[in-house]
Amino acid sequence: MQLNSFEFGAVPVRDDLAQVLEKSWTALSTSGAWLDGAQRSAIVDEARNAWECALCQERKEALSPYVIEGSHDDLGKLPASWVDVVHKVVTDSGRITRAWYDSVIGEDLLEDEFIEMLSVSCLVTGIDAFTRGIGIGPATLPPAISGEPARRRPGGARPGPGWASTIAPEDAGPELGNFYDDGPYYIWRALTLVPEEVRRFWELMNVLYLPDPGVEELGNLERGITRGQIEFLAARVSSLLGCYY
Amino acid sequence: MRLSLSGEHTGDDYNLDVVTGADNSGGNIPGGRVLNNFAEAVMARDNQQTEVERNKIIELLGGAAMADASAIIAAFNLVARVADATGLPLEDYKEEASVELRSRLGLNSLVTG
Q: A111: distance to nearest CA of chain B, Å?
């Protein structure tokens, strides 16, 4: 695999992490299950642009973001309802409510599209946090690759355990393969409505974090910090995002 | 909760108040203070402060630690957003196991829905 999206220089990034970062990054501009490469690329751009949105900044500072009305500063590449989702996920995910979720799902945005959009928004935001952390510039997205999404919901999807529909372990078909072999955690289930995307998401996540968080300490995994330091950072970042899952 | 379990496993007594930022002492976690300040700088998107804190981690824990700390910060930028945007509840067993911890850290009053 050619690794050319990230200029790691002398930063000692693990080989497995460097490889999966490249794979995850380039996949952002290729066709997904519900969104094509151009749409996914536009979501990446909009996710990065969200940090500059005056409305989002005003809402972030408000006691309740839902009383502040206005228009997002957007790049004009996505429908307004999609922009609202991307900006909210990036800038104020900790205060997302059921009412907001129900308000954005509809004719303009299918639940399946929401899940893929959520994944893409999170992936670019997380990868950008990584490059900021290690002190290199943000990666440049390759040109969008054409392709037609299948736009087909797999069998077994039903509402819960959160607001979005998911595929429970007992309902999982061949699309999910052995995805649930390591456990039925809700967080693994969250994106299963779009099996292709959930695999992409966790392929990166497992290398950034740990492939099996149930392991005692680190086992044989190569990491530069201890399990205690890992879990402290995990909890601290979640807290900074207002996430108490 | 995993931090608490990790401490139990290794016999370390971590001060979990560091998780919410109520305590910036490092909580008995080796390098906890610099890791906290690094995470805060990255999350604040403050490149200047991030560079300062990055250099402190490299000096104290090494370059590989800095890279893996960045990876964890990235990872939880992913999962925290997914959990909140899909309204994930805690699994029953986690809710039962974390009653005391959530109460102690004052997390129950912070849930939106």
A: 10
Q: Which residue has the tokens 């456990």?
A: A183
Residue in the structure block whose two tokens are 């149930």: A214
Helix, strand, coil % in chain A, rounded to nearest 5: 50, 0, 50
Mapped onto helix, strand or coil, the DSSP state of residue A159 is: strand
Q: Which amino acid is at A131?
A: T
- In this prediction the pTM is 0.93
- What is the residue type of B34? V
Across the interface, do B39 and A187 touch by the CB < 8 Å criterion? Answer: no
pLDDT tens digits, residue range A188-203? 999 999 999 999 999 9
Span A17-38, pLDDT tens digits: 999 999 999 999 999 999 999 9
Give the pair of three-digit tokens for residue A229: 């330091």
Chain A CB within 8 Å of residue B99 CB: no
Phi and psi at residue A209, to the nearest 5°? -105, -110
The CA distance from A207 to A19, in Å, is 10
Task: State whether B110 and A226 contact (CB < 8 Å).
Answer: no
Q: Tell me whether residues B67 and A13 touch, CB distance under 8 A.
A: yes
Residue B65's nearest CA partner among A14, A212, A9, A20 is: A14
Of B20, B85, B110, the CB nearest to A118: B85
C-alpha A171/C-alpha B32 separation (Å) is 42
- Mapping DSSP onto H, E and C, the string for chain B reads CHHHHHHHHHCCCCCHHHHCCCCCCCCCCCCHHHHHHHHHHHHCCCHHHHHHHHHHHHHHHCHHHHHHHHHHHHHHHHHHHHHHHCCCCCCHHHHHHCHHHHHHHCCHHHCCC
The verdict on ipTM greater than 0.85 is yes
Using the beta-carbon criterion (under 8 Å), do A240 and B50 form an inter-chain contact?
no
